[in-house]
Amino acid sequence: MRQEKTFLLKLWTDSADHVLWRASLENVMTKDKAYFASLQSLFEDLAALTASFHQEMEDMKVSENHD
After folding, report:
1. What share of the chain has pLDDT > 70, as a percent?
2. Domain map (residue ranges) of the chain
3. Is the pTM for the entire model greater than 0.90?
4. Which of 26, 51, 59, 65 has a CA between 20 and 30 Å from the CA of residue 41?
């Protein structure tokens, strides 16, 4: 079963030398928005999101097998 989440990613820099990038990630369905002070924190959050999506799918499979 395919699971899909849709997000709007915005990237920008506040510094003149464009070294420090900022980001926001918005869930287009719920309009929940998260802001990130660095790309590293964005990547960490994306890793956590995909892990939770994977766990949701596994939980759904277990639930379907018990019905």
Report:
1. 87
2. 7-66
3. no
4. 59
